[in-house]
Amino acid sequence: MAEVEIHADATFDEPTLIEGLPGAGLVGKITADHLVEELDMEWLGSCYCDGLPQVSVYRGESMETMPPVRIYGDDDRDLLVLQSDVPVSPSQASAFTGCLVGWLESESVFPVFLSGLPEEKGEVPGVYGIATGDGTDRLADTDVTPPEQGGLISGPTGALVHAANKRDLDGVALIAQSEVQFPDPEAARAVITRAIEPLVDIEIETETLVERAEEIRAARERLAQQVHEGDDESTKATAIRGFQ
Asked: Region labeled Disordered — which residues (predicted)?
């Protein structure tokens, strides 16, 4: 049965979920991994939705196996994180997004979708925000701006935003200037400090994302290459010149 299965006891009050599917610059993936590690978040549930690769994940120095797409939580902070170790194919995205967004809606979860925008960036990557439903109000206290020009979000994250918009689910999508072919810890740091911290009212240590940038890039390079080579499977934002 296709479902999101929660297998740990925790109590949340309209939590915020940070989505971390792999995409351009691995912005979502790096952000999600960092939040789970820094906040020592508990593995609460798993996604067994149609459209996800049927593979098992294991870690070094552990005999435990786990599904590739998982949900971690911190009930003290009313925070959830969707962590994924695999890309999701757009050809299978509709089944996955229907399953996940249906669960978000049923549990009154406010989603924060993440996407990289492959374009030239300054010393500090730009972070833009868009919203679904009545999510715009949540962006008011952040340091993000509307996109400078029109565009679209493709891949599985784009499908999630589309499904949330269709259901009139309150949520936001954060779009960060990023590398396209290589992991971009700096873009993930900008997303955390400029948007996620004020959205969730938390403080996260992010210096290590810069200090360990080369280590993070090396550790994530294979996944980034997989996402880049399967361009049709990649979540990314794309600016459309002259878009009205």
From this structure: 224-244
